[in-house]
């Protein structure tokens, strides 16, 4: 039976026609990233799978109907981020979806010496966004998490790598708070520059993906399959906030998540965030620190091509 789009809650069948648009999705080889890639390609977009392992990326892309390509990107290595951006052929890019991430890992570092979660989830995407921004015509979507609420999370500006106070949970919460502050400050800068590009954020709720398979706590890792089975929504539902944030007419700096109890499940809707995630002073301070750490910055001039010119 056909779905009645006028009465049903928002889902992937409501996506607009994306023919002629290009989207880059980091971590598109599995989970929510792959599901979002499949939906966007199915709606007519050309989707670039930006992945650390091109072989796995090709396998994922081959399973998707529509126009796709695979490019290598390791967010834990700033040289890889620069190589990806340098290889972009100055063509318009409708959507950049900062999806990839790591969660509650044992203490370890990126190739550049950053704490792995802060370095991958925030700094890698910060650098990628700034380097690709001259080509982006429509939207930057950054994946955050309800984890930004854990323990009244804040950014440790004196020790962002948490070398003195590391716990997997604290590091993950800090990285997800950073995602929301980045979204806020990016939108401020875009507005100030007169750019039509919008910066939005989304979180999937509690979705059954492979993100938790590498968490440090062995007991927590062992019970993930059980909690996924009984409490989580699948990756199809988990990808809906991303798709909504990427394609609907929302204000800049919007945050999208599920509409169910405690934002764990449900249809996509605008959701709230902590006071710390709305702090413009902290957002600017984080931006400045991130520029210094990555050696990238907001482009001095934004020359955004018209959306109509965005084609493959």
Provide keyphrases for this structure.
312 residues, alpha/beta, eight-stranded mixed β-sheet, 9 helices, 36% helix
Descriptive account of the structure:
This protein is of the alpha/beta class and 312 residues long. It is built from nine helices and eight strands. It has an eight-stranded mixed beta sheet with strand order 3-2-1-4-5-6-7-8, sandwiched between helices. β2, α2 and β3 form a beta-alpha-beta unit. The two termini are 35 Å apart. The model has no long low-confidence stretch (mean pLDDT 89).
Number of helices: 9
Tell me what portion of residues adopts beta-strand conformation.
5-15%
Using only CA atoms, what is the Rg?
18 Å
Strand order of the largest sheet: 3-2-1-4-5-6-7-8
Describe the global form.
globular
- Average pLDDT, rounded to a whole number, is 89
SSE pattern = EHEHEHEHEHEHHHEEH
Low-confidence stretches: none
Question: What structural category characterises the helix and strand content?
Answer: alpha/beta
Count of distinct strands: 8
Compute the separation of the termini in Å: 35 Å
What's the main sheet like?
8 strands, mixed
Relative helix content: 25-40%
Task: Write the SSE topology.
Layout: E1 22-26, H1 31-42, E2 46-51, H2 54-62, E3 68-72, H3 78-86, E4 93-98, H4 116-132, E5 136-143, H5 168-192, E6 198-202, H6 218-231, H7 235-238, H8 240-247, E7 255-258, E8 268-270, H9 280-294
Parallel strand pairs: 1-2, 1-4, 2-3, 4-5, 5-6, 6-7
Antiparallel strand pairs: 7-8
Helix pairs in contact: 3-4, 4-5, 4-9, 5-9
């Amino acid at each position: 039976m056909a779905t009645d789009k006028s009465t049903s809650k928002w889902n992937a069948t409501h996506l607009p026609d994306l023919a002629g648009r290009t989207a880059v999705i980091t971590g598109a080889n599995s989970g929510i990233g792959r599901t979002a890639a499949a939906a966007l390609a199915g709606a007519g977009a050309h989707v670039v799978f930006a992945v650390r392992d091109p072989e796995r990326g090709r396998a994922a892309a081959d399973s998707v109907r529509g126009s796709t390509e695979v490019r290598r990107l390791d967010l834990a290595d700033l040289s890889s981020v620069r190589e990806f951006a340098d290889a972009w052929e100055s063509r318009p890019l409708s959507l950049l979806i900062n999806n990839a991430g790591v969660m509650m890992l044992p203490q370890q570092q990126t190739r550049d010496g950053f704490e792995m979660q802060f370095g991958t989830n925030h700094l890698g995407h910060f650098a990628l966004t700034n380097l690709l921004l001259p080509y982006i015509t429509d939207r930057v979507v950054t994946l955050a998490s309800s984890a930004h609420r854990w323990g009244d999370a804040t950014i440790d500006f004196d020790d962002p790598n948490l070398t003195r106070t590391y716990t997997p949970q604290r590091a993950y919460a800090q990285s997800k708070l950073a995602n929301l502050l980045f979204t806020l400050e990016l939108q401020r800068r875009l507005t100030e520059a007169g750019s039509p590009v919008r910066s939005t954020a989304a979180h999937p709720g509690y979705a059954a993906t492979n993100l938790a398979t590498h968490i440090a706590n062995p007991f927590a890792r062992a019970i993930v399959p059980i909690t996924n089975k009984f409490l989580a929504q699948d990756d199809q539902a988990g990808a809906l906030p991303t798709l909504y944030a990427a394609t609907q007419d929302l204000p800049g700096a919007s945050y999208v998540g599920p509409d169910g109890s405690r934002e764990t499940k449900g249809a996509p809707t605008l959701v709230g965030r902590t006071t710390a995630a709305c702090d413009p002073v902290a957002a600017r301070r984080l931006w400045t620190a991130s520029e210094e750490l990555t050696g990238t910055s907001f482009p001095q001039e934004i020359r955004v091509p018209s959306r109509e010119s965005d084609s493959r």
